[in-house]
## 1
Amino acid sequence: MIELQSVSKTYRSLLRGRTVRALEDLTLSISRGEVFGIAGPNGAGKSTLISLLTGFLNPTAGTVRVDNAVPRAWVERHGVSYLTELVALPPRWTIDRALARLAVLGGLSGEQRSTRIEHAIEQLGLAEHRRKQVRQLSKGNLQRLGLAQSLLSDSNLVILDEPTHGLDPLYTQRFRDIVTALRRPDRTILIASHNLDELERLTDRVAILGKGRLQRIVGGAAEEAGTGSAVYRLVVAGGAEMPEGFPGAAVSGRPGEWRMEGTLAALNAAVGSLIESGVTITAFYPEASRLETAFRDAVGGGA
Amino acid sequence: MTRFPLAYAHWEVRDYFRGPGTILIAIAALAAVILVRLPAAAVFESEDTIATIAGQSLFPLCLIVTAGMVSRDLAEGWYRAYFSRPVAPSFFYLQRWLLGGIVFLLYIPLLAAAVAIRTGEFVVPGWIVGRAALLYLLVGGTVFLFSTLTRRDWVVAALLFIVYSVLHGLLSKGVPLGSLARTIHAVLPPYHAGSLDSQLSSGDIRGALVYGVAMVLAAMAVLTWRPMGSGGRA
């Protein structure tokens, strides 16, 4: 659905004579039905990439296509469900009116419009704030309004830039449910986020950008577990002693908590034998997610 | 949604009446109050009175109605919410500009109503409406075009208007101007066509129409071909 071929974007300041290379030689293909993540440190080019995909910017070099069309033409024809990183709406609009206006612009009419608006308001818990003006909203409520307006349309392209920024844990969880519900074979969902855990849970693949370049593409939740070594933490009930010769294991600082390193297959076998020997396991979790590790490798630990 | 967001027109009208429209109404109301309080012996002719008040107020009101019509959305980032929808920016803003023109022209009947309170005669002079329409086409068209390029759209339009008016005034009085000044006068929009004091030939009107329409089309071309964003987040 989305094709980027050797895309570069350079910002030029005529007055200051400065140039900033936001993206460089980016080639990427995203399929229909895919939930695709974009990760990267600040200034990596995530927002620029999204602006190129929505046609709000043109590339300096290379081509961007959505269904073989120039993005702006595609968006003007079909519309995109788009949440901006900084939700910007006229400050005097109330939530009700903002959603009504944007639904009208989205081509929704009559009953369909009311149904979608009510659903979005209910989904994001905005009912009690619906008469408030945009300028009166807290950061979290503004973000929920941003999400609500992006959910009004039924576009085959959903672009969410930092979707959980400012959301409390309840609505972060609800957002995950929303994305899961949005998945369908003819729809592409793009999520740009600093939250690697969120990307790992929700996406099929994640592109890691660094200094405007594509550093790496990592499989997300749907990818089969890799064969490489990983570090896990195991917590056992009653502070049980670690058996002799337990593979790659060491006792960590807290009682009953073990640190284990090995391939996932080896660790599974070891945990299985532990359970057979009567040890009760209360938790088993990766010390760092695969995406976190990949991110650190790709853009450096200091990023 | 069609590329021309007609269904959104009533929201635009509402915004005009809550924004610049209130100023138009306030000025007409102020005119009514002043006229009513003038001595009873004073005699007014409706058309002249409307022409006098309109002649003083049309230009600034035109700037008030059109200022920031595109540039504000660009500067504030609101365009991202509008144009992630299936809407063409060029038609969206053309509609906004046209509706602004209708609101602007409603000022003349409003003024006529204000004057009628004193004179008892409600007259809407067609020639004043026509001149106001030409003024909107030229000044409003200038603001529309520059609004696609800079936040200071109305300042640019005001400067061009003033420069043209000074040069036109000098030329009308037969003051000899240098070639540069004559070229500038020739290149700038023929703003005198919107003035209530000018005698216009059909050629003047035709020239004003062509220039005004050209500016509106140029604004639409910029909106079609120039990306709206200026940075990743902006």
Note: The mean pLDDT of chain B is 91.
## 2
Amino acid sequence: MELFKYKDPIQLMAKAKYFGLLSLIVVVSSWAIVFVKGFNYGIDFAGGTLIQVKYEKKAPLKDIRAALSKVKKYKNASVTNFGSEQEVVIRTKSSSTVVGKDVGKEIASILKDTGKVEIRRVDMVGPKIGGELREKGIKATLFAILGILIYISFRFEWRFALASVIALVHDVSIAFGAIALFQVPFNLDILAAILTILGYSLNDTIIVFDRIREGIEKAKNVILGDIIDESVTKTLSRTTLTSLTTFFVVLVLYLFGGEILKGFSFTLLVGVVVGTYSSIFIASPILMWLGFSVKDYKQMLAEKKKREIEKDKLRNQFEQGVV
Amino acid sequence: MGKLNFRVVIFALAFVFGVVFSIPSLVQSDSGKKITLGLDLQGGLHMLLGIKTEEAIKSYIKSLASTAKFELDKKDIVIDNITFDMESVSFEVLDEDEVQNALTLLQETLKEDKVTLQKNRITITLPQLQIQKVTQKAITQAVETIRNRLNQFGLAEPTVAKQGKDKILVEVPGIKTEEDKNRIKKLIAKTAHLQLMAVDEGKAARANVMSELEAKKYGDIILTDVKNPNEKYLLRAIPILDGSMLTDAKSVYDKNGQPMITFELNGEGAKIFAKFTEKAAPTRARLAIVLDKKVYSAPHINERIGGGRGQITGGFTINEANDVAIALRSGALLAPVYVMEERSIGPSLGKDSIIASSIALISGFALVFLFMIFYYGMAGMIADIALIANLFLIIAIMSLFGATLTLPGMAGIVLTVGMAVDANVIINERIRELLHEGKSVAKAIEDGYSNAFTAIWDANVTTLIASTLLFFYGTGAIKGFAVTMTIGILASMLTAILGTHGIYQMVLPKIKKEKLGFWFGIKGVK
């Protein structure tokens, strides 16, 4: 089967400013959402206690809240269903430091009159650890972006690097916006998803950039827009197919992977869609807008080649003992 | 069949390697190296503990005082008005003629600490270096003590390790019941600080009315009874001896069938104990047995007790007696620990997570597998063979390294399934493009691989950068995600690039230009 048969390049760069505008609007509104609604920080970063319990029948949320409100420590606890009607997650902002005391046992005894209940999971993160995890998370993201920037500068050119990093910021911003909009609990797994998006979106961008690099080397035409159009069109089928297979598996993970992986796979779903869009419609135009010149790049390549030839020549002469 | 080539041979070897070494994990055999399931998949307890090191320093200062008093007692030098703070202890020597003797004696015995004199008051100060040493010792000792205790508790493979500068990571997999979890936590928390202390008989009658401050003035402390918190004891603050001189502790039944704990002291402890009992016997003074600041009993001493044996009674259940004996045997914690992070997962949730993520993996795999055949024909099938090899390799490599598979790790494998075929999509698209341009099959394949290579390489390296950073900065279960992603990417370089290339080279003579629809899923090529 063949969905995309290459005929003529699609005229994308001529419409680039509309995509740019669209992205700008989405990114700005994403930041607005993050700013207004804020993240729903999970206990990994905010600290606190989370208890997941399971009832044999439908969980009596009202009774659970009533039972908890009698205990001072759990007065302000939030009680929500988790994945199914039988399962409930109880969350408080406090955490205890006493090793010998068990929160699960405590909750079990508070809830003993609400039905037969099983304590399935207790997560407790002290405030100090929450801060440490947040710091580590920010560091990991920044270093990842920095590492990528350096690698692409080295393999391509600085404008390529900058363009791909802007595309990354675009993707991550929109992913953040979605997380804030749907108030997905922001835990360590979301951070992992964000870093995966970084890697994935960049993957897509590089495939397109690689084609552009190849196009520049071959083309006689020096109009960047044309080269980009041709490269994007030629990689369109690959970009779409890989995005599809990745989207499939992430969707499956979202639907069947269990409630614990929901936030993680949701973030990835957004990331795959946005990452694919940005590598086609955003990364390449940015390259254009950054004033990338095909002529200069070709000249640079030519000089590089000349130097290599010269070096080879010298080496040959040296080996033959001429010098 | 076409001819063998080095690529296909390497691929076949890798495939066999993958299958062979993943078998122990897949069939869960007892022998061979296997993947360990993370706590989130098999259930268990994960704790990150902090240590109150200042307590270790406090008790070190107290033990300095004990030593000083013991040494001075031997020379019949009497001291009084003992005071402590965070880095020193000081006391008065009552007989002014003895002050110089006391100073020299202490300076000789306590070489590592600073002993100074002001009028008739001697102060022993801990130098900064000594404080650091005590702190470090408290941490390493806590790691070892907790490890000993958990090992003696008899659960499979607990992990106890120092993390960072001053934290302890405790991981106990395979806890079956809530009750076991509670016992384990109590066992870890137990300071198990055994002290034998003299009752201050002169003022003992006022124990219930005296304030702590007043007691401190006399060099005493007030502790309560373990069963009856209203019953108080006035005890000399400096213990006669403590658990560090213990050599053994056992839980046994007494003659009434009640569980109790017997303990044995080492030679030095036995000597001190004998000397104390000899002195106490004429007045029938009492000796309090104190465990973790609670008085378990305070029997009258009727005669000199040699041999260094003692017992702790106090209405234990047999489980409690067992756990206390374990804690005493493996030594006291020099400093108490507290919870900084705790995650516990019940075995049933772990099982549910395994089922859910396995369903996701299998259905994701089936989707991608069928899609590739549907879209690319035989070329898709070849990519699928590489994908299968990739999965086996991930499992095999993780087994060989004894890596831990977590729930995010499973997600990483699912994601790898989606992304590993990417290389083959890129290559197949290139080959199709070249075929459309009218190149021969052999040329299209060779050029397709070489054209696609730089893109795949650069893309994989950048993904590796992200996953490596995730590995170094990630914690706990997230690390598992980075591990499977990284292994998956590396394995895909071998299977999806080298492996499929080799297969093409091998089957090349069979690929006829008229049958490109079957082989590459394209039509209309002249």
Note: Chain B has a mean pLDDT of 85.
## 3
Amino acid sequence: MNTGLQPMVQVRGLTRFFGRGCADCFGLTGPTHETNQCPRCRTVIACREVSFDLHADEVLGIVGESGSGKSTVVRLLHFDIEPTSGEFRLHLNGTAGDSVPGLDPQQNLFDLGPHQKRQVRNSLMGIVYQNALLGLRLKVTAGGNIAERLLMAGWRRVGLMRARAVDLLGRTEVPVGRMDELPRNFSGGMQQRVQIAKALSTYPALLLLDEVTTGLDVSVQARVLDLIRSLQRELHVATIVVSHDLGVIRLLTTRTLVMRHGGIVEQGLSDQILEDPQHPYTQLLVSSTL
Amino acid sequence: MSRVIHPNPSSPRADWREACAYSHGRTSFAFLDEGAKREIRRRMLKAVAIPGYQVPFGSREMPIARGWGTGGLQLTLSLIGPEDVLKVIDQGADDSVNAVSIRRFVTRVTGVRTTTDTPAATLIQTRHRIPEEPLRPHQILVFQVPIPEPLRLVEPSEVETRRMHSEADYSRMWLYLYEDIVTYGEITIGARYPVLVNRRHLMDPSPIPRWDVARLNGNPALMLFCAGREKRIYALPPHTRVEPLEFEDFRFQVESFDDRRCLHCGSTQSFLDEIIEEETGRRLYACSDSAFCEKVRKAGDGSTPPSRKEERLP
């Protein structure tokens, strides 16, 4: 575990433009201008100067309306898309750092080459997308989906990989008897649980959950949330939860960022933000959902 | 290109002879022009420098159809010199149509000597087999390749497969093997078994049987691969480490013939083709390498076939 107050994840000035960008982009967008699109060059600032820390074993929520840039943050951190600028550091203090040899805590992970980025992603991060299509290979069996991450991490024993898959599918309440079936035959909730099992297969240090319960019916939502909460307690994995659902944020997270038009408008303890929102937008958000 | 080389359109066969005679005096030795040969040789050098890496090249139009060995033929024609001795095989046989036409074409445009005897050849063009007799140093084996990309099986996009090669990201291929084991209990790839070259590049060994895949490792001969339609050249320099993908608990296995013998020479030491007798429906087995079979028959009763011992890396 980390010592002292050193955060495990440090994100500074994370910015991503979609478009050419011009000198006035920052001045003409953001919460004060009520838009994230630059009126001069039509560039969308999906994410502007987002900075935050995340400690080991902590669950951070990111909440905001659709288009506020919350999913962009997660995808940037997972190296799915390249940032325009920004810094991303991981301090592991021996917890899982051995799996990526020569990873310097002072290293800005965005500067790594594609091969090293893939190594970091495979051994230290897990992601669960809203759409199981993004996170799973639907033409590959459920067990194979879990094995894929293990294969990337260099596992070369079929027996061991299957044992790990059985263990994880059992924990995520997917019937183990169906592990050699294709996930396209599974219900939405089950696909989501296979995704969670896949994300956890290499015991990552950082888990990214992008709108995991959106699109599931309420009873399935409750079971998936229950599962995530118990797994998080068991495995002590630092987690970032992205959701537009304040219920999910309340249930899972300890600290929350509120995003709007690509920037952070408010941050603090989840209870505080939900009970006593300070920013007008957060007030609107809380009052409209509760 | 406005020269008329078909003066008599009524008789195509006579035309062809005339065209050859015509071009023989005026164009380069071995059909290809010197510029083409130079390019292909440079590409081969690069391929040898990066074992297993697919080097793109400008595949030329040849007088046989693409997919019928144009890749191998271009390498052969760029490599061949007047003192070379050529052997051409198709699935191990020296006398099948593809082998015969390619051999005749190369002889016609170069006048080199040909042979069916593996140790006597300096240059061997092959389709889908490695000769049974061990290869020697300084021999060159040229493979005809239909699909040079081993990852095509799992990824249709060329951009994506190139990225996977550049990052040595072969987990998709491993996943394919895993799925095969889960579904069928074993790895079902018969020919085109993917191999890792020099612990770096994943390579398609062309559709040779697994029997031959095992013989690629540390082979003393230079092996060159070329796909004319797909415009790719790759190579295994002599004594290169070539490892088939395998799991620790599901090892790579060569074909097993369960003590079956060749019906002609009685050999149990060679790769056998299955022949089904039409009248009786009986299954018979014969050597796929016809020259090897012949040799064993001449040597005697088949109990002492030429040694298959080859130099292997430790």
Note: Chain B touches chain A through 18 residues (CB under 8 Å).
